[in-house]
Amino acid sequence: MVAAKRPTIRDVAEAAGVSKSLAALVFSTEGGVSPDRREKVLEAAKKLGYTPNQWARSLRSGSGSFVGILLNDLHNPLLIQIADLTRKILLERGQQSFISAAVITEKNGKRIVDPSSIHSLLDLRPKALVIVGGLPDLKPFKQIPDTIPVIVASSQASSLPNATIVRADDHEALRLLVRHLIELGHSKIAYVGPTDSENSIARRDAYLSSMEFFGLGDLAVTQLADRFEDRGYAAAKLLLQGANPPTAIVAFNDNIAFGVQSAVQELVAAGRNPVAVTGFDNTFVAELGMVSLTSIEQEKEAIAMKIAEILTTPDGVEDYRGQEIKLMPRLIARKSTFRI
Amino acid sequence: MVAAKRPTIRDVAEAAGVSKSLAALVFSTEGGVSPDRREKVLEAAKKLGYTPNQWARSLRSGSGSFVGILLNDLHNPLLIQIADLTRKILLERGQQSFISAAVITEKNGKRIVDPSSIHSLLDLRPKALVIVGGLPDLKPFKQIPDTIPVIVASSQASSLPNATIVRADDHEALRLLVRHLIELGHSKIAYVGPTDSENSIARRDAYLSSMEFFGLGDLAVTQLADRFEDRGYAAAKLLLQGANPPTAIVAFNDNIAFGVQSAVQELVAAGRNPVAVTGFDNTFVAELGMVSLTSIEQEKEAIAMKIAEILTTPDGVEDYRGQEIKLMPRLIARKSTFRI
DNA sequence: GTGAAAGCGCTAACAG
DNA sequence: CTGTTAGCGCTTTCAC
Fold this sequence. Notes:
Strand order of the largest sheet of chain A: 2-1-5-6-7-13
Largest interface: A-B, 67 and 68 residues
Helix content of chain A: 40-55%
Order of helices and strands of chain A: HHHHEHEEEHEEEHEHEHEHEHEHHEE
Number of helices of chain A: 13
CATH class of the largest domain in chain A: Alpha Beta
CATH architecture of the largest domain in chain A: 3-Layer(aba) Sandwich
Oligomer: homodimer
Shape of chain A: elongated
CATH superfamily of the largest domain in chain A: Response regulator
Number of strands of chain A: 14
């Protein structure tokens, strides 16, 4: 709260005794200005605390020099970590980025999209856009002009045919989970999760085909649950109180798994045998000693690194346009899974 | 990915057969345009999918019509919730907002401030700025010009004398916690937390004065711990393995409390008596059945509501300038605290 | 190498 | 009520 107003290029030019355009040249090009004048301008800029207004810049030049990052769910620690890592790597490589969120999550977990914030970010004219995480429906992003490349992280995006997709291989992840449980002696392995999006349907299908793959197709059971803890809790109760209950439950994500864990914990307190539980995303909560949830690490660093690489390589965005990059997931075993 | 380019006011004007300025008038004022022409313009706008570019608008008019929200830690669920709630209420009241983050949190928890993103948001010329959450040092925000009002949520901000502060009353919160534990029969109540910021020092002091207030001043013990789970774990180990260990531990926040809980859990597994644990912030993790942590609810909705009220009331920002608004916190008792 | 002038998309102060 | 004009902060021809 100090300067009444940011200094403009004009202020700098005046202080340096040159024209506005010359001062501008100093900040936008390498050469073209005589060393002594360049020096003078930089000095004046420093004294005044001048930084170019990048928005005015992108307004004039049609496209800015920054990458826009759009976070689709502030409440999902996985997405936050991917976004933060991406930002950090880009920063290290000298690539400016600007992060924003288009989605407001309500207390009940309903996500409302604010289309004007998508507009707003686009109006800033990013040179590329990174969309982190999925939505039940990615249609709001169809308004993105073809001229700006899009990278989608950790989600499918069939409605965005030109986008580059970087995400973990769900089929491989589910195979890891099912195999892990089988190795621990389980066979009655159930699945709990939503089917409200491309992502969630694909993951459930991956569960089914993994069960099939390991010869357990007949034992496959799926139970619907929205992506929140209490829904996982309810779904698990349903499964475990039914006839022929599973000995292991694979949850769509960590959040749902936490609910499943609560349900299991209650039943154990009532004298029942424990049930193995697995999550997905390996959020920081899964790691907590009190929770200790076996989960799937989506290799957030690798995802972030890949995104940064695409964005900072010449022609990177061109080369990967429309492609889907699947990264190997990793299983993190914790106390929630055990030998039967 | 459809339109090659966003339509401008010119395109609309042309399509409607009027001048650019007349078309502009339709979007910026209520009256001043004849009904039939207004109709024509709106129709053309709809057909072309035109939306005003608000950044060009704020560039020209010196100040935009939106409120900037700056999130200081994407990894703190409390701050996210406050930000999201604020956004939602503002949206309902027709007040545009634009959210961004100036801080990148590294894996080890270190927070690095990207000053250029503060610049960037300021260059957008928000009509007001909401800073959600604190930092070890709020100095990077000193660059905010006096002309734009600042509201700080859930943090102190003595370095920003003109800012309005909306936060929970820490003294009251600590009084609630200590009293709760005393009522459960505890007296050896220790405190674990950092002292790396105004906030954290104030909270520790609030603990000390609460202990004093209840006549337990001689039993007060504080143990330093950075704001991360593993630091809480280590600090708790230290406390509990020392001579005359506490029967209850008050943690600076939920995150640290989770670590404390892990340490307690381990000792219980080894045959020791359980120790009561309390957190602060009532994040969604505290609520999980596996965790069930007694915590302090900062009344996020009340905070968000107050912020929205200040921002949407005429002269609201003026009336509250430089003031600190303390809201009553609420204790949420869960299984982590019990009768001794 | 340097400066003048035009213009990004918009608004605000004018004149018709 | 309508249209013209100038200009936000910047870049980018284009002459000098």
